[in-house]
Design a protein that fits this description.
The protein has about 325 residues and is α+β, with helices and mostly antiparallel strands. It folds into two domains: about 80 residues, no CATH class; about 170 residues, 3-Layer(aba) Sandwich (Glutaredoxin). The chain has ten helices and twelve strands.
């Protein structure tokens, strides 16, 4: 999830039902055109933030606003909570409808014979299903020659091991694919202590066909095709997830792909943070995930540079990987 995480209050509501119903829900949940461009929640103190600079005044305002929350008797609190519960249930119903419409999308047949480098040797896309009919691929931002995988993708990957076990019992194989070479993937995976399957698309067109890798020529144009639109995207790799189905005849179909903030529901830590008084606490950061580290790089004295934009992981010394694609 990284540089393309563009906030959108209507993300989960988009394309669910009629525009009128979505607009009505937005009003119910407290969104309006007037405040669409503003930060939501108690952290909004834009007057104290100038071009990504998180001043001490801003930080104090966030803390003070949280500590000055309205305190009421239990009966009044329960009434307020029940009103929010009503909105949460409506949100859940719309999310269910959105999921139904996602499952109703038309499919496209996969015609290419992609071959990947895996722990057990060469594997085709069909092999990756592992005897199941459904395959979920996480497009992990890790390019050939990089010293390590993307911190934000690693933020998601910390939850993959547990999920993969359960998905396997619902006829779903889950794995990650990156353009880094298999030795690079294996070394980083070992460092992070992960067990989920992760294969390399180095040398094939898979990442490019699913719009999560960009050639130097594409980047030189200033915009690349990502998340179904031409957009500015500095890194050479992008995050995403793609879903495939294989029928009894062995035919493979691409059923769904999601990118950018469409991956937000899959970030378990964010879902927990959204329950807390401070929320994600990212207002004032030029790049919302500037605080995220690889889980082996956190320390108690860690400071966040509020002006820092997304930085692609550094590359190792030039190697044959540099020549792989101009």
């Amino acid at each position: 999830m990284c540089p393309a995480c563009i906030p959108s209050a209507a993300l989960v509501a988009g394309s669910v039902m009629s525009t009128g119903r979505i607009a009505a829900l937005a009003m119910k949940l407290g969104f309006s055109k007037k405040n669409r461009g503003k930060k939501n929640g108690p952290n909004n103190n834009s007057k104290n933030v100038q071009k990504g600079e998180m001043t001490m005044a801003t930080m104090n305002a966030i803390t003070n606003k949280t500590e000055e929350a309205k305190v009421v008797p239990q009966a009044e609190w329960v009434e307020a909570r029940k009103e929010l519960l009503r909105k949460e249930k409506e949100f859940s119903r719309l999310r269910d409808e959105l999921s139904r419409q996602r499952r109703s999308l038309p499919w496209e047949k996969v015609e290419k014979n992609y071959v990947f480098d895996g722990p057990r040797g060469k594997e085709t896309l069909a092999d990756l299903f592992g005897g199941r009919s459904q395959l979920i691929v996480y497009h992990f931002m890790f390019g050939p020659g990089w010293k390590e995988g993307c911190p934000s993708c690693s933020f998601l990957a910390d939850t993959f091991d547990g999920a993969a076990v359960h998905l396997a019992h619902r006829d779903v194989t889950f794995l990650a694919i990156s353009r880094a070479t298999l030795p690079e993937i294996e070394a980083f995976k070992k460092r992070m202590g992960w067990q989920f399957k992760w294969v390399s698309s180095f040398g094939n067109e898979f990442n490019y066909d699913y719009n999560v890798s960009f050639s130097k020529e594409e980047q030189a144009n200033g915009k690349v095709y990502y998340n179904y639109d031409m957009t500015e995207f500095p890194p050479e790799e992008g995050p995403g997830t793609s879903v495939f189905y294989k029928n009894e005849a062995g035919e493979i179909f691409h059923t769904y792909s999601s990118y950018a903030r469409g991956l937000d529901p899959m970030i378990g830590t964010y879902n927990w943070l959204d329950l807390t008084p401070k929320g994600r606490d990212e207002d004032g950061l030029a790049f919302s995930m500037a605080w995220v580290r690889h889980h082996d790089k956190y320390d108690d004295g860690c400071r966040v540079d509020a002006k820092q934009q997304y930085v692609q992981p550094a590359k190792a010394d030039a190697s044959c990987c540099e020549k792989e694609r101009a």
